[in-house]
TrEMBL record:
It comes from the Eukaryota. It comes from Phytophthora nicotianae (Potato buckeye rot agent). Pfam families: ZSWIM1-3_RNaseH-like. This is ZSWIM1/3 RNaseH-like domain-containing protein. Residues 1-67 form the ZSWIM1/3 RNaseH-like domain.
Length: 128
């Protein structure tokens, strides 16, 4: 799925692969590039937590920022917050942290993104 700057999305390719080996993923990426001549305009790729071939994407799309899907980011932060070395779940306001992640995800400008990131650090800083 590709989304434009207005949030409108469309499917650009489906690839049936035998497995998620480096060779199969590289073939799928090359097929995608052949079918989509404007692939160089891609700026961000969002991956699932199970995506093990991050370096492959970075090699084939050198100017692209690869990010973790926000659902998995929130899940990861939640699991980290529960660890005793960070004070356990009672030492955080989990809803504030998740709200900060949501604000980051929907920030309309880099200035807003930076402000929300600082807020997230403010929430987590006493524990890290």
């Amino acid at each position: 799925m590709v989304h434009d700057v207005y949030g409108h999305g469309q499917y650009v390719q489906h690839s049936l692969m035998e497995n998620e080996s480096t060779e199969c993923l590289a073939d799928a990426i090359e097929a995608f590039k052949l079918s989509n001549p404007s692939w160089e305009q891609i700026r961000v790729i969002v991956i699932d937590r199970a995506m093990g071939e991050l370096s492959l994407l970075e090699t084939h799309f050198p100017h692209v920022k690869v990010i973790l899907r926000h659902f998995h980011l929130k899940k990861y932060i939640r699991s980290e917050m529960k660890k005793s070395k960070y004070g356990g779940p009672s030492s955080f306001d989990m809803y504030q942290v998740e709200d900060a992640v949501d604000m980051l995800r929907t920030a309309p400008t880099i200035e807003d993104y930076t402000k929300y990131l600082k807020y997230l650090y403010f929430l987590l800083e006493p524990h890290i």
